[in-house]
Amino acid sequence: MTVPAAVQPLLLALVLAASARVKLTSRTARSRATGTALAAIVGKRRAPLAYGMVGGVEAVVALALLAGGVPVVPQRIGAALAVAASTAFVGYLGYARLFAPDSSCGCVSARQAPIRWRSFARAVLLLAASVVALVAGTPWPAAVARPYLAVGVLVVELAAVALLSPELDERWLFPVRRLVLRVRPHPLAGLAYDLPLASTVRQLERSPAYREVGGRLRSDVLDHWDEGEWRIVCYRTDSAATAVFAVPRLRYDPDSVRVAVVTDPEPVPA
Amino acid sequence: MDAMDRRRLLTSAVLGTAGLATATALGPLSPEPAHASPALPATEPVVEDPNFAEGRITGISGTMLLVTGSDTVLHRIRVTNGTSIWKLYPTTFDAVDVGDGLYARGVRMADGTLAADSLWVNIVSMSVQITAIGNGWLHLDHDNKRIVGRVVPGRTAAVYRDAPTTGDLSKLRVGRHAHIIGAWRPDTNEVDLATVYAGTVAG
């Protein structure tokens, strides 16, 4: 148990350092701080500064955790700071979820990510790691005793953190989903149909016939149907007549669009 | 005259397969009034457009829609057979339900009712990122909110950059940013997709 416990300070230091790096060095991330839940707590104007300060605190905790490797510095100092930081972070997520549900968590990347269960699971994972590190108090260099086990635990835990990071979806989840769609038939492939109405309307709006009467049309598309090689589209005009357009169905030729204006022989009640 | 007869009449009017006394191509449309439609002065954006209304339908009485605006103003909107009604696609008055949201454009009458020329029911227009694609649906992220975009066979269309509108949705990719027009299903996070504009936004 000593080796896995000794790995925890390293895991925490790595995650905190990555998070601090973004907060301290990425101008984009700081400017986006106004969109994070932090802005709801300290105000929009102070959010970028507060965001940077959180990054500073994370860097200090990461350093304290790494300092546990120096024989005279107890590992528990860094671990205790990490417990405090993770607890505060779980509290922050809870607050954000309750009072600023639309905001981004602003956690470990400049990318915006909503606060959902994954953010919570990740925060709880880090809290658990901090508690283990605090209780065991094993300095991290002890992990060298069983290097394969140590690296294995670290890799698994880092992978878990990555899986639970919505900010990293674009790096691994989206490519995986794209790959799946490439390997398997595209789920929407079978749905293609010959001619959406929007396509007809786009052609219609580029036609001389439409330019002629467009200014007199008062309604959107009233009715439409297909008639051989034509699609018929009807609109209401300002003189309460019906403008009937015939648009080529399966070719693009706006010049051949025809129009007729028909006065209703009998008004039909709706 | 039933709907089929009417369609036949209009078809022959525009395609000219039959002579019709009532059909005169461009006849009643003299060019002058085309430019005489009253427009609000563009320099006064604070003026509320009296010929426009938006809100949610709280009641339907005959052909009158009672609509509560998002600013809590109550609108009465009269629908006629000359009113175009969009709800994912051009449809008829029976497709309109209490609880639906709408945008209406028309002419404000002296009694305060809006005689509607056009209704767009539950229409939404938003920028999204496609986060997953499945059998008949897209998961979309809009301002950190997850939207489920329902693909409606024979209705949902896609525009890839400047290419013509197509019914082929198989070029949509996970991670792409897109703009969607669709019909919101009231009180859910689901949208029936009308058009997906893909690749019009960088990313």
UniProtKB/TrEMBL annotation, chain A:
It is a multi-pass membrane protein. It holds the Pfam family MauE. Residues 5-135 form the Methylamine utilisation protein MauE domain. The keyword Transmembrane applies. Its main location: membrane. InterPro entries: Methylamine_util_MauE. GO terms for biological process: methylamine metabolic process. GO terms for cellular component: membrane. Keywords: Membrane, Transmembrane, Transmembrane helix. It is found in: Membrane. The chain crosses the membrane at residues 6-24, 49-71, 77-99, 120-142. This is Methylamine utilisation protein MauE domain-containing protein. The lineage of its organism: Bacteria, Bacillati, Actinomycetota, Actinomycetes, Micromonosporales.
From TrEMBL, chain B:
The lineage of its organism: Bacteria, Bacillati, Actinomycetota, Actinomycetes, Micromonosporales. Residues 1-23 form the signal peptide. It comes from the Bacteria. Keywords: Signal. This is Cell wall protein. It comes from Actinocatenispora rupis. InterPro entries: TAT_signal (IPR006311).
